[in-house]
Design a protein that fits this description.
Helix content: 10-25%
Distance between the termini: 100 Å
Largest sheet: 6 strands, antiparallel, barrel
CATH topology of the largest domain: Pdz3 Domain
Strand order of the largest sheet: 1-2-3-6-5-4
Number of helices: 11
CATH class of the largest domain: Mainly Beta
Strand content: 35-45%
Structural class: alpha+beta
Radius of gyration: 26 Å
CATH superfamily of the largest domain: PDZ domain
Number of strands: 26
C-alpha cells in the first residue's frame, strides 16, 4: 500500500512538472519578436498588380501586348482603407488587388503619389474598419538593434524576416532617375514583393518602409526612415489636394522616445483654424474621434468629410485642455496665398529685389523669375501663376529633393507662388524656418510633381 501511494505521488508530481515545463516552454517561445509580429501583422496588406507591356519586337509590331504581374506590400494608415506603399509598386499598373490578413481581397485604386520619395497612397473600399499600423520613431534607432520585416516576399504573403539595423543614413543610387537618401540598412531579408512593407522594431512599431535591395548582394536591404516617410504620407493624404478643403494649420511633429505630439507653429489668417481659436503653441490632441499624434493623423481626421461638418477639437494650451469647434472651408490657393503674404505692396525691385533673391538662394537654393501672364505652362493646370527656376544651387534643399532648372514652382505649403511676395513670405517667416519638411509643388512638362524640404540657412 505504501509503495502504491509513493508511486501515485510520483506520478502526480511528474504530471505537474511536465505541465509546468510545457507552460514555461510556451512563455519562453513567446519572445518579444513573436509578440511584435502579433501586434503588427493584421495591418500589413499584400498587393498584386497587373500592367501591360509592349511586345518589344520590331519585326512583329502587331503582336499583342504582354501582361506582367507584379507584387508588393502595403501598410494600413487609415481604418477606412487608405494604404501606403511604394510608388514603384503601383506605377503604370492597369489593375491592383489587395489581400488582407484574413484572406479577403479587394480591388484598389491609386489616390496620390510622390515619385521623388517613392511613396503612394492606395485605397480599398473595405466592408469593415481595418487595423492601423502604429508609426514609431526612427530618429533613435541604434546600430545592431533588432528589427523585422513583414511582406509579400516572392508572392509568399505575410512573410516574416528578422535581422538588425546594419547602418543608418545610407544613400542608394538605383538609376539615373531614382535615388534614395538617408535610408536605413538592414540584414533582414528584403525580397522582391517586400517593397512598401514595414520594417518594425520589437515594440511592433514601424521604423521604416522597405524600398530596395542591392542586386547581387545578400542580406542587404534598405528602408525609408519613418520620420521622413510620415511627412510624405501626410502630404499624400492632404485634404487640400484630395478634397480641395483646408484647415489652415501649420504644425510640427515632435518625435522623441518619451514625447510624441503635434505642435501648432502658425495659423493662416482668416482660416478655419483661426476662426476656431487655435493658436500657435497649441498641442493638437484630438479632432473628432481621431487621436492626434502626427501630421498623418491631422490630415486623415479631416479627410473625406463634409465641408460644413463641425469638428470637436481638443488642444492642450498652458497644460490645460481647451475644447474648440472647427469647420473646414473650400481651398483656394490664390485666396490662401493672399491671406498669408506679408502685408504691404513690395514690388521686389532694386535693392529689395536683390536682397530677396539672395535670401531665396540661401534658404531654398534657387533663383526664380515670374512667369508672364498667359504663359503656356498655366493654360492647362489650374494655377494662377508661377515662378520659373533659373538656377539650382548644388547641395541645396531644392537640389537634394530633385528640383531642376526650368521647373515651374507653383506652390509652397498652402500658398501659391504667383509672385515674389509669396516667396518672400515663406523665406522670411520665422516659424517656417524650423518647420518640418515644407511641401512644394512644381510643373515639369505635363506633370505636376510634389515633394518637401526643410528650409535652412535663413538670414535676412
Amino acid at each position: 500500500m505504501t509503495k502504491r501511494l509513493i508511486h501515485s505521488g510520483l506520478c502526480v508530481a511528474l504530471l505537474f512538472a511536465v505541465s509546468a515545463a510545457q507552460s514555461l516552454g510556451s512563455e519562453q517561445r513567446s519572445t518579444p519578436l513573436v509578440q511584435a509580429v502579433k501586434k503588427a501583422k493584421n495591418a500589413v496588406v499584400n498587393i498584386h498588380s497587373e500592367k501591360t507591356a509592349a511586345s518589344g519586337n520590331a519585326l512583329f509590331p502587331t503582336q499583342k501586348p504582354r501582361k506582367i504581374n507584379g507584387m508588393g506590400t502595403g501598410i494600413v494608415v487609415d481604418e477606412r482603407g487608405y494604404i501606403v506603399t511604394n510608388h514603384h509598386v503601383v506605377k503604370d499598373v492597369d489593375e491592383l488587388r489587395v489581400s488582407l490578413h484574413d484572406g479577403s481581397t479587394y480591388t484598389a485604386r491609386v489616390i496620390s503619389i510622390d515619385r521623388t520619395h517613392d511613396l503612394a497612397i492606395i485605397k480599398i473600399d473595405a466592408t469593415q474598419d481595418l487595423e492601423l499600423m502604429p508609426l514609431g520613431i526612427s530618429s533613435d534607432l541604434m546600430l545592431g538593434e533588432s528589427v523585422f520585416a513583414v511582406g509579400n516576399a516572392f508572392g509568399y504573403e505575410h512573410t516574416i524576416t528578422a535581422g538588425i539595423v546594419s547602418a543608418l543614413s545610407r544613400d542608394v543610387e538605383v538609376n539615373s532617375d531614382m535615388a534614395y537618401r538617408n535610408l536605413i540598412q538592414t540584414d533582414a531579408s528584403i525580397n522582391p514583393g517586400n517593397s512598401g512593407g514595414p520594417l518594425l522594431n520589437l515594440d511592433g512599431d514601424v521604423v521604416g518602409i522597405n524600398v530596395a535591395i542591392r542586386a547581387g548582394a545578400q542580406r542587404i536591404g534598405f528602408a525609408i526612415p519613418i520620420n521622413q516617410a510620415r511627412q510624405v504620407i501626410a502630404k499624400l493624404l492632404s485634404i487640400q489636394s484630395l478634397d480641395r478643403t483646408f484647415h489652415g494649420i501649420v504644425a510640427t511633429d515632435v518625435k522623441e522616445p518619451d514625447d510624441q505630439h503635434l505642435k501648432v507653429e502658425s495659423v493662416a489668417a482668416n482660416s478655419p483654424a483661426e476662426k476656431a481659436g487655435i493658436k500657435p503653441g497649441d498641442i493638437l490632441e484630438r479632432i473628432g474621434e481621431v487621436k492626434i499624434v502626427d501630421g498623418v493623423d491631422l490630415e486623415r481626421a479631416f479627410l473625406r468629410r463634409d465641408q460644413d461638418e463641425p469638428f470637436d477639437v481638443v488642444v492642450k494650451r498652458n497644460d490645460l485642455d481647451e475644447n474648440l469647434e472647427l469647420t473646414l472651408a473650400a481651398f483656394s490657393g490664390q485666396a490662401a496665398g493672399r491671406n498669408l503674404v506679408a502685408r504691404g505692396n513690395l514690388d521686389a525691385k532694386g535693392d529689395q529685389g536683390v536682397d530677396l533673391a539672395n535670401r531665396t538662394w540661401n534658404v531654398l537654393g534657387v533663383r526664380l523669375t515670374a512667369l508672364p501672364d498667359g504663359d503656356k505652362h498655366l493654360v492647362a493646370p489650374a494655377y494662377h501663376g508661377g515662378m520659373r527656376i533659373e538656377h539650382v544651387r548644388a547641395g541645396s534643399p531644392a537640389a537634394v529633393n530633385g528640383i531642376r532648372k526650368d521647373d515651374i514652382l507653383v506652390g509652397l505649403h498652402i500658398w501659391e507662388t504667383i509672385s515674389r511676395q509669396n516667396v518672400q513670405f515663406v523665406v522670411d517667416h520665422p516659424q517656417l524656418l524650423t518647420f518640418a519638411p515644407l511641401k512644394f509643388y512644381i510643373l515639369r512638362g505635363d506633370e505636376t510633381l510634389y515633394g518637401h524640404f526643410r528650409l535652412v540657412g535663413a538670414s535676412k
